[in-house]
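Let's study my pick:
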Amino acid sequence: MRGRRPGRTHPRRGCTGRPDRAHRRGRPGEDPARNLTARIFAHVRGLDDLRGRIALLAADEKTIRIAEATAGRSGKDALIAYADAWRDYARRYPGRYTATQTPIEIDPALAADAPGPRRAVDLTYGMLRAYGLAEPDLTDAVRLLRSTFHGFVALEAAGGFAHRRPAQASWNRALDALHTLLEHWPSSEDDEEREKEAGKA
């Protein structure tokens, strides 16, 4: 009977791959989800159910990172910490991040018990209220932030920033611009006036 060759490892049969390689290796200092695979596959009822569970778990991970980054901060400091945590998660775990941004039909019972999405809303709206925003401006500002953050990281991941200026410099300037815009957000009353003028024309 032949023994194993020295230094050679044998993959365990029946193992299932995890959403990201970095998580698979279990690098020191990485976040909570060491049992991610077990948590995902424990009660899976099909591919759609699996995708939904991955999306919810990833949303929870991302929200925890943002919450930790923004704790005790407000205004521009909170905005920068929030944005940097968002971008860092997208770069470290591209597969899981994509799951949080892809429209997926999720079991309502699972969604109701998932803290990630609700916590994300609370964090985002709480940060923006520090800029003195109220509805409907809050929703408009949330959409602007999501569009900016997601658009930037998606282009960056696709190699869309080929110009010699470093992407980090553009990211910093984008956050400066967002902060200035949020501090001088146009009143929703301006929209009402424009609609009245358009109706008269």
In short: The CA atoms of residues 35 and 139 lie 35 Å apart. The radius of gyration is 21 Å. The chain has ten helices and no strands. The first helix runs from residue 21 to 25.
